[in-house]
Amino acid sequence: MKVTIAKNESEFDCTAAWRIIGEILRKPEAVIGLSTGRTTGNLHRIVGEVYSRYPFDTSAVTFFGLDEVTNVPREYAGACYTMLKTEIIDTLGIRDENFLMLPTFSDDFRRDCIAFQEEIARRGGIDLLILGLGENGHLGFNQPQSPFDGEAWVTKMNPELEERIRWETGTPPEKELGGATLGIKNIMQARRIVLVAKGSNKAGIVKQMLEGPVTPDVPASVLQLHPNCEFLLDTASASELSEN
Fold first, then answer.
1. What's the CA gap between 87 and 68, in Å, rounded?
2. 20 to 30 Å CA-CA from 103: which of 3, 109, 175, 223?
3. What domains, with CATH codes, occur in the chain?
């Protein structure tokens, strides 16, 4: 288990960005999974800035999003598809066929979840997966009590996020919102994982993730068992660790 603590936000974002760039340079046909949220936006933009100044070959790399909000338009600013397109995909010139996403609308999400994980496997499996950390320890939309042997599926989102998305999209109460996501089993099959967490609001869950028991109560705790996972933290999120 590797823990890296960045001294400031700039070092944090640059370190994470170079994990992505380094993987592409190491393996031009790499399959790389990305996460969205406040923690990852800046690091995605830095990848684009480096590419714009010092172009490298992205023609064979496959990017995919770990999860997606269901039953909202893809054009919605909070849809993972739109966030990733804006933050990194378009800047790197990634072709549509090399950007894999779970759908926002479907008449059969189970079918589409199976097809999504099968397409990732067909391309050789996940070489690098960048994960964010939820304040309750969730990974993607795998909330506490999600099964460790679960594969891609549609789950419920936490009430606070659902309330915000309903307000932003004008989605009525009778229309169900959820989150399509790779399951924890899929996550653990990645050859290499970099979990990124920053901010004092994450300090408590970082301690539980790294120093507590491996339990579905804290889904991210399962990463203790991954053979090649780096936990990239800032000083604030690492502040409660025993060995910090």
1. 15
2. 223
3. 2-234 (3.40.50.1360)
